[in-house]
């Protein structure tokens, strides 16, 4: 069985559309009782009402951040083993999309992370640089490695001349 998720490599240039804009990456710092904190990209699993993976991305970003995104471009896919209910095994395919933050109102957050939180979900921003990414425990490790190797390429996915 395959579980599909949609996750946002969510970048904000503070309204600067220029090619040398200083991007920040919006992350969620997760802290669970008795565990070290870690940082994740906004997103989550597809639900039956999601017609596409991109639709799931928009729903998840709205739920977790009260946010709207634009310029959604596929960037990276990560496939990992996934334990399912009743000890069955499958894979989880995580689709990572680079996208630009259009708006965010944290007072509009809703959904299970807000209504029935397991630990804390703190929205944070880091510089979208190798140093910024290295400064947090970003998961999954494959995403951290991808961003470290491809940060200029990820920025280029939001360039005006991409088409």
Provide the residue-averaged pLDDT: 90
Q: Radius of gyration in whole Å, from Cα?
A: 16 Å
Please write the string of helix (H) and strand (E) elements: EEEEHEEHEHH
* Strand percentage: 35-45%
Largest sheet: 7 strands, mixed
| Percent in helix | 10-25%
Q: What is the global morphology?
A: globular
The structure class reads: alpha+beta
Number of helices in the DSSP assignment: 4
Low-confidence region ranges: none
Count the beta strands: 7
Measured distance between first and last alpha carbons: 35 Å
Task: Describe the structure in your own words.
23% of the residues lie in helices and 40% in strands. With 163 residues, it is α+β, with helices and mostly antiparallel strands. 25% of the residues are buried. The mean pLDDT is 90.
Secondary structure topology:
Blueprint (H helix, E strand, L loop, with lengths): L1 E11 L11 E8 L6 E3 L2 E3 L7 H13 L1 E17 L5 E16 L7 H4 L4 E8 L2 H5 L6 H16 L7
Parallel strand pairs: 1-6
Antiparallel strand pairs: 1-2, 1-4, 2-3, 2-7, 5-6
Task: Provide a quick synopsis of the model.
The protein has about 160 residues and is of the alpha+beta class. It contains four helices and seven strands; from the N terminus they run ββββαββαβαα. Belongs to the Nudix hydrolase family.
């Amino acid at each position: 069985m395959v579980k599909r998720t949609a996750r946002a490599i969510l970048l904000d240039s503070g309204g600067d559309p220029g090619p040398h804009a200083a991007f920040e990456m919006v992350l969620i710092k997760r802290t669970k009782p008795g565990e070290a904190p870690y940082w994740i990209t906004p997103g989550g699993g597809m639900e039956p009402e999601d017609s596409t993976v991109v639709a799931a991305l928009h729903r998840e970003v709205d739920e977790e951040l009260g946010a709207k995104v634009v310029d959604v471009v596929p960037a990276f896919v990560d496939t990992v083993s996934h334990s399912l209910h009743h000890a069955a095994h499958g894979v989880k395919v995580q689709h990572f999309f680079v996208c630009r933050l259009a708006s965010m109102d944290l007072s509009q957050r809703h959904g299970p992370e807000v209504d029935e939180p397991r630990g804390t979900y703190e929205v944070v921003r880091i510089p979208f640089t190798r140093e910024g990414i290295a400064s947090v425990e970003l998961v999954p490790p494959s995403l951290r490695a991808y961003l470290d190797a491809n940060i200029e390429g990820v920025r280029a996915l939001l360039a005006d001349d991409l088409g």
